[in-house]
């Protein structure tokens, strides 16, 4: 992990997010709560736009993917059958002096050990072999396995029988509901079930802003196929993930597609490819795609004693569907969107009120920008203010539009650039005569006079709407 450095890109992005109300520490007035983040007025817009674009791309525009919103708390038998109760563990060690906890695999990686494919026992052996100490140089406790699922209790008594888990992934909802959805949505294999929702993991070392948190959101598809066809569909969904990355503005030079070696794959997977992104703090996993075979449907069939096999209505073949799982972390997507869009400029000349200091601009894809346009009357004086409100109210019917009449026009442009607003509309005294406004483009800074009556149509052609 990169050291916190006042000048680092990450520091600047984090501080812009706090300053402008995208994302800030949760429960802040009580001193926060370790690595919990709240998405403010602009953050929630950006997050919703990402979700909307994803849903449109993978559900709305397709015939072979349908949606689901499953309960967050599922019957605990789900997590026994899926293997999470037994296996969803991270190896944990504690600094004996400071009581700080660390992930053993991360500490070993920092010492240059390739932990891929190492069992828990292998890692324990490495601790004594390397005489491993904590990052503060102190003795470590003996490693133990730590289950990452959050537990709670259903109902008024907190005993073992009522123990339930907050879901650590959205995927199991799609497996458990597979049969019901296949029948009610009248889908034939191949088809997929998509879900966007919260997942919870009691991560030992959350951090890097919103990269690793204990509650996060996933966007996942379980795509059910005939076992003979899995290779074709795996390639297909990998391509879809790549196409998506261009939609969100991820720069190709920051992407690595990592074929996971057989010994490093999750126990249920016969092929996995991780999409890694070069974040300012290093190359890290962004998305994954896995061929989960029929592992989950078999496990749930066995545990629930329900036949989850599929009968093809045309061929009458009966088989257990196999599954390709592309998964997208929503919060990591948002972080990639911010990192890709963030640009630091030397103060730009040629516009009124140029400030002689660094300026920040978010060159967000227009569809994702939280605010699509800002209405900026040159003066608070009438009738500019009234005309401005009229225009803003009209545009608000179709887009998120801000009205701002405070501060110099240069400052107001900077404010909008910093939050990634693609267009600014200025109203001047000529507007009163010719009923035209000036529209400024965030990226080219080109200015165009557009008639007020034609504004909605003009913006309709600009690709702002998801
Ligand atoms: P990591 O190795 O980073 O812990 P993982 O391989 O355990 O991730 P998956 O179980 O494949 O992750 O989860 C699917 C996706 O969910 C990840 O690719 C990532 O985008 C997102 N994700 C997983 N854990 C977190 C977390 N703690 N915070 C934010 N996003 C997460």
Task: Explain how this protein is built.
This protein has 466 residues and is α+β, with helices and mostly antiparallel strands. It has 3 domains: 263 residues, Bira Bifunctional Protein, Domain 2 (BirA Bifunctional Protein, domain 2, 2-Layer Sandwich), CATH 3.30.930; 59 residues, 2-Layer Sandwich (Herpes Virus-1), CATH 3.30.40.230; 97 residues, Anticodon-binding domain (Rossmann fold, 3-Layer(aba) Sandwich), CATH 3.40.50.800. Helix content is 31%, strand content 26%. The protein has 15 helices and 23 strands. The strands form 7 sheets. The chain has a 7-stranded mixed sheet with strand order 3-9-10-16-13-12-11, with helices on both faces. A 5-stranded mixed sheet has the order 20-19-21-22-23, sandwiched between helices. A 3-stranded antiparallel sheet has the order 5-4-6. A hairpin with a 5-residue loop joins strand 22 and strand 23. Helix 2 crosses helix 11. The radius of gyration is 26 Å and the shape is globular. The two termini are 35 Å apart. The site of adenosine-5'-triphosphate has 15 residues, from strand 10, strand 13, strand 16 and helix 11.
């Amino acid at each position: 992990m990169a050291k916190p450095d006042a000048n680092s890109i990450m520091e600047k992005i984090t501080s812009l997010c706090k300053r402008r109300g995208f994302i800030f520490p949760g429960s802040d007035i009580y001193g926060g709560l370790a690595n919990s983040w709240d998405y403010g007025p602009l953050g929630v817009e950006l997050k919703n736009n990402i979700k909307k674009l994803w849903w449109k791309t993978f559900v709305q525009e397709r015939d072979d993917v349908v949606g689901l919103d499953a309960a967050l708390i599922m019957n605990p038998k789900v997590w026994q059958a899926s293997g999470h109760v037994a296996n969803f563990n991270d190896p944990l060690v504690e600094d004996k002096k400071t009581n700080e906890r660390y992930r053993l695999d991360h500490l070993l990686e920092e010492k240059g050990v390739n932990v891929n494919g190492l069992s828990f026992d292998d890692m324990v052996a490495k601790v004594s072999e390397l005489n491993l100490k904590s990052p503060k140089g102190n003795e470590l406790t003996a490693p133990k396995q730590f289950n990452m699922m959050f537990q709670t209790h259903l109902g008024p008594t907190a005993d073992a029988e009522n123990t339930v888990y907050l879901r650590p992934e959205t995927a199991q909802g799609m497996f458990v509901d597979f049969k019901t959805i296949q029948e009610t949505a009248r889908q034939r294999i191949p088809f997929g079930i998509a879900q966007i929702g919260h997942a919870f993991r009691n991560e030992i070392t959350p951090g890097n802003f919103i990269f690793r948190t204990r509650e996060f959101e996933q966007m996942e598809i379980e795509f059910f196929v005939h076992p003979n066809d899995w290779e074709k569909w795996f390639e297909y969904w990998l391509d879809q993930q790549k196409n998506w990355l261009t939609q969100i503005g991820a720069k190709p030079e920051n992407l690595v597609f990592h074929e996971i070696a057989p010994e490093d794959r999750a126990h249920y997977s016969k092929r996995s490819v991780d999409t890694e992104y070069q974040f300012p703090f290093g190359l890290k996993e962004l998305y994954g795609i896995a061929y989960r075979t029929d592992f989950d449907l078999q496990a749930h069939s066995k545990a629930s004693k329900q036949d989850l096999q599929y009968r093809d209505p045309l061929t009458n073949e009966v088989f257990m569907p196999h599954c390709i799982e592309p998964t997208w972390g929503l919060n990591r997507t948002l972080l990639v969107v911010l990192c890709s869009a963030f640009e630091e400029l030397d103060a730009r000349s040629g516009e009124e009120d140029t400030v002689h200091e660094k300026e920040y601009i978010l060159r967000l894809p227009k569809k994702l920008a939280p605010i699509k346009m800002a209405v900026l009357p040159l003066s608070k004086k009438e009738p500019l203010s009234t005309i401005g409100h009229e225009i803003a109210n009209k545009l608000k019917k179709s887009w998120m539009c801000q009205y701002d009449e405070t501060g110099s026009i240069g400052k107001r442009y900077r404010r909008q650039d910093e939050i990634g607003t693609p267009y600014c509309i200025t109203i001047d005294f000529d507007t009163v005569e010719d009923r035209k406004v000036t529209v400024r483009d965030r990226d080219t800074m080109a200015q165009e006079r557009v008639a007020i009556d034609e504004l909605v149509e003009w913006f309709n052609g600009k690709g702002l709407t998801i």
